[in-house]
Amino acid sequence: MRNRSGSSLSRSLSRRTGLRLITLSTALKNLTSLSEEIRHADFFKEKNFTGGIIAFRPSKKNNPGQINHSDRDVVCQVLKGSGRLRVNKRRTALRPGMICHIPKGTPHDFAAGIRGELVLFYLLIKTS
Fold it and tell me: Model-level pTM?
């Protein structure tokens, strides 16, 4: 027996174990806009990590800005789409299934390819 938010088994496990499940289709419907290009949502927040989904739309603008998490490592997995990751002026092509680790304090940014959204699952992991 399924409903819009998942299976009854998932909810039952969640109540008993603290397990949290979300489907990609549900996650994508719950993203909020950060900008014209970026939508995201945090789905898992704990003391030492935050996990969620971030989606980048193709953009014709060249944005040289980068983000830097001074106290958190970033681990991302490409779920769908293609694009690139830029670290230290080096661009790396991304495609579904790829996983990347960005150490804390490393300036970086992502961008979608020209054919559609780049969708990533991310973990921000607090490091000492």
Answer: 0.82
